[in-house]
Amino acid sequence: MHQPRRxxxxxxxxxxxxxxxxxxxQQGAKVVFTNGCFDLVHSGHVQLLEQARAAGDVxxxxxxxxxxxxxxxxxxxxxxxxxxxxxVIAGLESVDYVVIFDEPDPLRVITxxxxxxxxxxxxxxxxxxxxxxVVEAAGGRVFAIPLxxxxxxxxxxxxxxxxxxxxxxxxxxxxxxxxxxxxxxKKKVSTP
Length: 192
Prior knowledge:
Helix content: 40-55%
Shape: elongated
Structural class: alpha/beta
CATH architecture of the largest domain: 3-Layer(aba) Sandwich
Low-confidence stretches: 176-192
CATH class of the largest domain: Alpha Beta
Strand order of the largest sheet: 3-2-1-4-5
Strand content: 5-15%
Distance between the termini: 49 Å
Number of helices: 8
Order of helices and strands: HHEHEHHEHEHEH
């Protein structure tokens, strides 16, 4: 069956994706759906998407828009803009299509795309997965895949902040020594 290869062929609007998936289903393909913010893509995301892809023939990943991420995570997020997040996810071999959605949850996208398999990470229980009723009513399956321990975008951001704060504190402690050693001014270091 035809699989898109270029990133631009993988990133679709909802209107573009609906007929493509209908055609694939008519050819006997099972459509798998998952979604997320994917703000800082990490090995846990990659593992989840690989495992999700194994549950069907075509995997669609819905990526929260910038506005949607801000609603869910607060004004300091996302770190990475939606177009870049979509391109990174589309660059994964396990992903066939990516669609960006603007709502806080993917219910409308799930309702319109009608996947046969709906998958989320293990931080969701099957009874709390949004869209479960829609997929199961159509005879589909819904399940959660266990998360990789100790790996999350929020944890990565917290680590970066902690390290930046400790480096800032260390720099402040050596600033006087550095300035004194260079006649009251910091020495510029050029790099090639």
